Amino acid sequence: IFLVVILAFTAFTVDVGFISLARTQMQAAADSAALAAAMELTSSTSPSQVRANAQAAAADVASRFVNGDRSGVTLDAATDITFGKQVSIGNGQYSMLWGNDQTPYNIVKVRVRRGTDSDGNGGTIDNRLPLFFGPVIQNSKADLTTEAIASFQPRDIMLVLDFSASMNDDSCLGAIGKLGQTFIESNLQTMWTEQIGRAHV
Questions:
Q1: Are 86 and 59 in contact (CB under 8 A)?
Q2: I want to staple 148 with a disulfide (CB 3.0 to 4.6 A). Which of 34, 54, 114, 139 is the partner?
């Protein structure tokens, strides 16, 4: 009797562990694919081209991830990759609007799933995760779904060329030998005072 109980718990542990491993692998694939897709988001290219580039990047990255009994993740561009736009609604709150018409895109969602899908001819394709001991309790496969959202937020970058060298090391301790300790300490004090003043404004 105890042997049966021990075997039952062993079977349960193996299957649950396999499901947890596969889910973790799928989540890693979704995260990486979403990041790869987000890198292709831009407002300087037509939305259709952006979608094509992002879908290709996501599919390529996802295919490199093992998930359960499979050596790669396959994404359906029509159903597993969704584009949208994140907009501010005030008070530091944001809303996510999904759909191909929400341009320019700045967010993308990638879903990785193992389930039952249509084969396009009226039949189905069983992509569920096969279990080792599940058939004993009439549950031979598991449905799994993970998803990830990545955003692309462009920022303005300014480059300052200091040809006069007036900003060169005038507050670095390493420049004491050249500019003098009093000068360096005075600049550091000024920076500290101005920073504290901004903090209180």
A1: no
A2: 34
